[in-house]
Amino acid sequence: MTLRFEAPERPIVQPAAVSELWYTRCPVPTASGIALELGWLAHEFDRLGIKLSSVRDSDVADVRLAHFSHTLPGLFREGGNIPAIWARSNGQDTSVVALTWVDEYQAILVRPESGIATPADLRGARIGLPRQTGQRIDFARAMSLRGIVSALELGGLTTQNVALIDIASEQPVFAGAERNGSFHQLEVEALVAGHVDAIYVKGAVGRGSAREHRLATLVDLGRHPDPLVRVNNGNPRPVTVDRRTARERPDLVARYLSVLIRAANWAKDHASEVTAIVAREVNRLPDDVHAGYGPDLSRSFGLDLSPRRVVGLARQKDFLLHWGFIPHDFDINGWIDDVPLSIAQGL
């Protein structure tokens, strides 16, 4: 499938005055996280007299919720694609201005003594699936289901061939589970206790859980040679901004992206520093970061809008629509605005 997009014609308007912008990113490896750690984003906008504020650090609940709903004007978000797609499907007028792709450990875990040795052996298995109440979008369920469906397809199976077992929990709307290292915790406990036969985990947190509980990796989707098999919440990871800001101040969006590009280039030559930054983000040991994201992590933060990444984003949107995680279809091509990135690449 080939997707093509054309930037819409832009009316000539006077630049809107901006005194404050917002940012948020998920607690996973991101160019934003590196740029923030280095202090580059704050410096870039300080010299323009623009305050750059953190959504996650706000005392206002509605501001923090914008991490998922993207309702805050002047908000930049780099994070999992499921909340971003959900917000756009619900009518939030955002633009994708860049995509990143950081491959990660995406595994189906089983108990070593289970006798499940290949994806085909999952036939008849009980597979744990998180169900989180209290969330605007249950991204953990959507992400796990995507990984489970992908693994089943490798074994010639569908969800009709297994029993999906809900593992329910009530999570605060902005729990930051990956930050405190508890992501997948209930699923791991259910697997260890024998209540289910398999679960999906990801990243450094998932790799650490597998190590700590001596669980076996049935399949690591993150190592599959076809990048589209590796598509999930983290791949591709969109950088989004509200469309009004992108239209009225593409220069500011470009400045933001240019700092992320600079951070991605810096990361290539600072592998140990990147590992330390990511370890703090996900609250895991550096060894788990190495195992969860691989030896090429420091060279994985580049931004683009390449056809492969756009196709991956479209596939993810189609999956979420098919399984009822989003209410309305929309055009991926129309969601993308390539003008700010083009400007940023020339800065």
Structure report:
- This protein has helices at residues 31-38, 40-46, 61-69, 81-89, 139-154, 185-192, 203-212, 243-248, 250-268, 271-282, 286-293, 307-322, 332-335, 339-346; strands at residues 20-25, 51-54, 75-78, 94-100, 106-110, 126-133, 163-170, 199-202, 216-220, 237-242.
- Residues 1-8 and 175-181 have low confidence and may be disordered.
- Helix 7 crosses helix 11.
- It starts with 19 loop residues before the first strand and ends with a helix.
- The chain is 40% helix and 16% strand.
- By secondary structure, it is α/β, with parallel strands linked by helices.
- The strands form 3 sheets. A 5-stranded mixed beta sheet has the order 2-1-3-10-4, with helices on both faces. A 3-stranded antiparallel beta sheet has the order 8-5-9, sandwiched between helices.
- The chain has 2 domains: 17-50 and 73-102 and 234-254 and 296-347, Periplasmic binding protein-like II (D-Maltodextrin-Binding Protein, domain 2); 106-229, D-Maltodextrin-Binding Protein, domain 2 (3-Layer(aba) Sandwich).
- It is built from 14 helices and 10 strands.
- Strand 6 (126-133), helix 5 and strand 7 form a beta-alpha-beta unit.
